[in-house]
């Protein structure tokens, strides 16, 4: 059961964190490339605005260029994202911040006014059919990941000791069965433990007996325990870095070849 008040509060706090992060950036920082291919800091903020406008029922204007031909656009959602980004391409940073505040403020009021029944109603989500509340939890994850994209672009680490950071790791952990079993091709009968280090350490276990699934505890020692910082874990799963970028910070206890195979397959979203 997804708690509406907690999710909405986390999303509003995440928007405030992004606002505080970008409000004092200079022109070079706004133009800095982020780990999202083809996107600058300016583009990332435009993307967040566009997504919230879409959720509010708006459609982007047609672009002057064929955005589907851009190298980093791979599907219909990518086309939609890029149309929004192009629509704000001539906005100054000050104008973009003002629009960000207006749009997220409107969305915050809409979400706060929603009934629990509407929040729990069936809805399309980027993870398939679920509920509107599940979609909003994914929005927390998406916005937090983009905050980290901006921080990486401008060299300002942080934002890891927050409720939205916890929800974001939860979102990834929820999908570890798919990541380990489908993407990582862990063999039947194996098991994997992720030991995430940092200021908010946690462990997650995946049992691959038949269908891979996240479990509270394993029946015995894991085939491999993958020890790595939470920040590397989220960036690997978000496709922001590859295993070679974090090789010196990852430790494998047990079957190292299986661990490496899984780490190289962690990217499930971009």
Descriptive report:
With 270 residues, this protein is α+β, with helices and mostly antiparallel strands. The chain is 50% helix and 14% strand. The chain contains 11 helices and 7 strands. The chain has helices at residues 4-22, 27-31, 41-55, 76-87, 93-113, 116-119, 132-154, 163-174, 176-183, 230-237, 256-263, and strands at 122-125, 128-131, 190-197, 202-209, 211-215, 224-229, 251-254. The strands form 2 sheets. A 5-stranded mixed sheet has the order 5-4-3-6-7. Strands 1-2 form a two-stranded antiparallel sheet. Helix 1 (4-22) runs antiparallel to helix 5 (93-113), helix 3 (41-55) packs antiparallel against helix 7 and helix 7 (132-154) packs across helix 8 (163-174). The mean pLDDT is 94.
Question: What structural keywords apply?
Answer:
270 residues, alpha+beta, Four Helix Bundle (Hemerythrin (Met), subunit A), Nonspecific Lipid-transfer Protein, Chain A, 2 domains, five-stranded mixed β-sheet, two-stranded antiparallel sheet
SSE order and pairing:
Layout lengths: L3 H19 L4 H5 L9 H15 L20 H12 L5 H21 L2 H4 L2 E4 L2 E4 H23 L8 H12 L1 H8 L6 E8 L4 E8 L1 E5 L8 E6 H8 L13 E4 L1 H8 L7
Parallel strand pairs: 3-6
Antiparallel strand pairs: 1-2, 3-4, 4-5, 6-7
